[in-house]
Recover the amino acids of this structure.
């Protein structure tokens, strides 16, 4: 084997030691702690076997064998087959059945089972071991020929499809034709005679597709099936699932070979799936389905309706009692809710699988808190156990679990929650209809800053393009609106005010429902359930209370308005880490003044307009500072390029051309031409790197002087009324100490003057954002002037990578992720190796200059659990995120602290 064919992730030692390795473990040799090696299913079967539960005997081929299989270009590792045949001998003894036995044949299932559950993503072969002779034997033992023939035809179909890659449709078509010929609707109605000819037909399909006969030797069947399960680790759907769930590609799957038991051997047989607690509500009750006289497949195929698990109590009370006992035992043993699969064969219970149950957010918090009450787990374990995404589910309305609606498209879930409303295709209509009390969903190809007024009034946002850090996603998350982006199947026609998906067209005014938690788009109204306030959620409050006792990082919120600040407080924020003042400039009543200020040609004229803005801004700041009394509020001075406050250039060109052509409204034409001229003047080739941030303060100091005056006047007024206002003034986009110095020199006198005028002292801070690599690299210098740092990780990511976020997300991030050029979207989770290093340097250098320098993060990453972990590691004082993400950030900060102390133990 050439070295070049060995994947880089494979440790060399494994390759060279292959001959000596143990590839196969009997169930009785394994244990729960061997999940890495035996996969979840194998470890579960082993643990149940050890605990003396009735598990059909079997063995597991390790995940290591799978890795070795790939390392050797798709060959079974040396020694593996010998170990399998040895294990088979033991299995035959345990089962008291034998492969090929004409009276009592052993049949096995061959199932995949990775370390992490990947439901339905990999392959399984059931009823392996059947041929003409063993089928007859099975029929005789079961006293049911139909059952045996049905098992045989299922086996051929599964084997053909999974092992040989035969198109499953060919078998399905033959089955449908057989039913049609027989004049029956369902599979069980096919008579043995019909089934016998169907088996023949299946064998012919197999021969035709593969060019050889179906293998009659069970050993050959088994060998082929094992390889097929290994191969199924790398099917496209498995790869996609792993990417979604962030499961590493290099784990490999184990293969479980286990004696078949049959739940379809009459009324005292059956099969079921049950959870030891209700996975939807968390209630402590056995919850699940039972299907008498059936195999697991029938449950999945939905041929017959299942009964609630309680039905087992009626049918077979002793079996039910035994199962209940095992459930309790397993839950206690694993100290977590278990998802159990079982089969009853002629009154005998077999436990097939146990694994940690997937659960809703509601169930997750309720169960964790109950288990603390039952002394099953500690408070810290309860905190560590809740996935941030589960907590998030509780915060937003969601699709009712029983809703049967089918989505017409799926996009990228960008902001959680479900919403129903009439589709509208432009922001003005969204704003107008929204204000009139209608529920609307704003549907756009993509959104831009001019759409914000419509987004505010919309119940949800759907865009055809964009990723999780696109404009729509960021704004929607900030506002807590459900949002789906990048729904590429949704073809939006903004001119026609409609969208279509595969021939279904939705026009303006027609209702749609979106689920921003899953990315699903539905036509019409789908029932949703409202979110409850977390403070009223007993279990969630308990979890968050424990999280607060555990975390070191503070959690602040980004809030531009008093209403956001109130939401932030309600969710437990300990400060405002970013108040973006430009959003205040965009509001209807001040935009004309802001525009007049920008249109001004002289400083005097500009100052005149700014004087009109001053009382309005003062009111804004008073509002937010008083809501946050006693807590810090970081107010960022103007950041975006000025053209963003003026009408769109293309619109102006179009409107002036129309007016010129018609000769109508000469006054309006003159006004628009003037604005267009200013827009042209302000036009930049690359506004992201142009005249914005601190550069505006340097060139137009009067703007930020007004802002500082407004902040300080508001704070003084409040302090006079004994309201503890604590403003922190923040300058964006600083790259050099000199910039900050120049701006500080302009602003400090204003702050001092206001305090003097008002006769009040305000404890305020003056600081900067770190969002340019140069600022991070020279943080030691910058800290001489700045009393605090706040990482603007959105811009810092853009400038570190040299990516423009919108362009990157639109054109190449997806491709980069697919080709693993990027491991994660850096606009979603901080790039630890690049941006993270700059942050680490800035924290270190900054604190060298100013020991108690307050350092936080206010970029969108502040609400991302993985980025929060990094912020904890870097020793930041706080993370600041949208008010809606505060609870999740509290939990993530606690989990970072728990992980930290676990790794240092
Ligand atoms: C940032 O860059 O991360 C930041 C908070 O600033 P903005 O997103 O407003 O550019
Ligand atoms: Mg920024």
């Amino acid at each position: 084997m050439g070295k070049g064919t060995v994947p880089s992730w494979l440790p060399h030692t494994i390759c060279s030691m292959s001959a000596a390795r143990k590839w196969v473990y009997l169930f009785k040799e394994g244990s729960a702690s061997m999940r890495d090696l035996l996969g979840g299913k194998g470890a579960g079967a082993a643990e149940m076997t050890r605990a003396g539960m009735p598990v059909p005997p079997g063995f597991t081929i390790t995940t290591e064998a799978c890795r070795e299989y790939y390392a050797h270009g798709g060959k079974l590792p040396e020694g593996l087959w010998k170990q399998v045949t040895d294990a088979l001998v033991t299995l035959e003894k345990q089962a008291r059945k034998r492969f090929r036995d004409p009276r009592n044949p052993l049949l096995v299932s061959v199932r995949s089972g990775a370390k992490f559950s990947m439901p339905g993503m990999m392959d399984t072969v059931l009823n392996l071991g059947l041929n003409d002779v063993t089928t007859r034997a099975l029929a005789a033992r079961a006293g049911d020929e139909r059952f045996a023939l049905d098992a045989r035809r299922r086996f051929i179909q599964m084997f053909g499809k999974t092992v040989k890659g035969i198109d499953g449709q060919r078998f399905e078509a033959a089955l449908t034709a057989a039913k049609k010929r027989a004049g029956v609707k369902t599979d069980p109605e096919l008579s043995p005679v019909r089934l016998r000819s169907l088996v023949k037909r299946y064998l012919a399909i197999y021969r035709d597709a593969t060019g050889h006969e179906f293998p009659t030797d069970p050993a050959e069947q088994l060998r082929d099936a094992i390889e097929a399960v290994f191969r199924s680790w790398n099917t496209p759907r498995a790869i996609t699932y792993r990417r979604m769930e962030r499961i590493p590609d290099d784990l490999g799957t184990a293969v479980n070979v286990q004696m078949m038991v049959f739940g379809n051997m009459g009324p005292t047989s059956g099969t079921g799936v049950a959870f030891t607690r209700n996975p939807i509500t968390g209630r402590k009750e056995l919850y699940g389905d039972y299907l008498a006289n059936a195999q697991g497949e029938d449950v999945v195929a939905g041929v017959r309706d299942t009964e609630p698990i309680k039905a087992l109590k009626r049918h077979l009370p002793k079996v039910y009692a035994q199962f209940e006992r095992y459930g309790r035992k397993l839950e206690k043993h694993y100290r977590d809710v278990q998802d159990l699969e079982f089969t009853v064969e002629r009154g005998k219970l077999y436990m097939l699988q146990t694994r940690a149950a997937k659960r809703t957010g509601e169930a997750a918090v309720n169960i964790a808190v109950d288990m603390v009450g039952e002394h099953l787990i500690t408070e810290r374990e309860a905190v560590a156990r809740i996935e941030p995404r589960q907590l998030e589910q509780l915060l937003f309305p969601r699709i009712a679990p029983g809703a049967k609606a089918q989505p017409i498209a799926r996009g990228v879930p960008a902001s959680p929650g479900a919403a129903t409303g009439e589709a509208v295709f432009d922001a003005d209509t969204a704003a107008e209809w929204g204000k009139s009390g209608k529920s609307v969903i704003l549907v756009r190809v993509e959104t831009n800053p001019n759409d914000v007024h419509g987004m505010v009034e919309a119940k949800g946002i759907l865009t055809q393009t964009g990723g999780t850090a696109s404009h729509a996603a960021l704004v929607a998350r900030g506002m807590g609106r459900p949002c789906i982006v990048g729904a590429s199947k949704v073809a939006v026609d903004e001119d026609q005010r409609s969208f279509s998906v595969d021939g279904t067209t939705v026009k303006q005014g027609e209702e749609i429902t979106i689920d921003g938690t899953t990315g699903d788009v539905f036509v019409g109204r789908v029932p949703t359930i409202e979110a409850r306030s977390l403070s009223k959620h007993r279990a969630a409050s308990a979890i968050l209370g424990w999280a607060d006792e555990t975390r070191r990082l503070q959690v602040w919120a980004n809030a531009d308005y008093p209403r956001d600040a109130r939401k932030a407080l309600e969710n437990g924020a300990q400060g405002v880490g970013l108040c973006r003042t430009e959003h205040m400039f965009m509001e209807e009543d001040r935009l004309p003044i802001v525009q007049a200020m920008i249109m001004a040609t002289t400083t005097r004229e500009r100052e005149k307009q700014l004087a009109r803005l001053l009382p309005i801004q003062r009111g804004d700041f008073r509002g937010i500072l008083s809501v946050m009394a006693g807590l810090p509020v970081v107010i960022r001075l103007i950041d975006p390029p000025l053209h963003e406050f003026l009408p769109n250039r293309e619109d102006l060109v179009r409107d002036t051309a129309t007016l010129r052509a018609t000769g109508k409204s000469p006054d309006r034409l003159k006004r628009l031409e003037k604005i267009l001229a200013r827009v042209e003047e302000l036009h930049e080739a690359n506004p992201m790197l142009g005249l914005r941030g601190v550069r505006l303060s340097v060139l137009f100091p009067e703007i930020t002087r007004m802002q500082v005056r407004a902040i300080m006047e508001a704070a003084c007024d409040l302090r006079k009324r004994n309201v503890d206002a604590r403003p922190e003034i923040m300058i964006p986009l600083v790259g050099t100490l000199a910039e900050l110095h120049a701006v500080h020199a302009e602003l400090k006198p204003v702050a001092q003057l206001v305090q003097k005028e008002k006769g009040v002292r305000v404890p305020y801070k003056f600081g900067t954002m770190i969002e340019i690599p140069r600022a991070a690299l020279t943080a030691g210098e910058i800290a001489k002037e700045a009393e605090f740092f706040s990482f603007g990780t959105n811009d810092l990511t853009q400038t570190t990578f040299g990516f423009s976020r919108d362009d990157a997300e639109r054109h190449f991030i997806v491709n980069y992720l697919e080709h693993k050029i990027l491991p994660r979207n850096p606009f979603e989770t901080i790039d630890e190796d690049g941006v993270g290093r700059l942050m680490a340097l800035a924290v270190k250098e900054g604190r060298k200059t100013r020991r108690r320098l307050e350092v936080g993060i206010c970029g969108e990453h502040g609400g991302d659990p993985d980025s929060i972990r990094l912020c904890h590691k870097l020793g930041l004082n706080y993370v600041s995120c949208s008010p809606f993400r505060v609870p999740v950030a509290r939990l993530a900060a606690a989990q970072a602290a728990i992980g930290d102390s676990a790794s240092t133990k």
Notes: The chain is about 50% helix and 15% strand. The first strand starts at residue 24 and ends at 26.
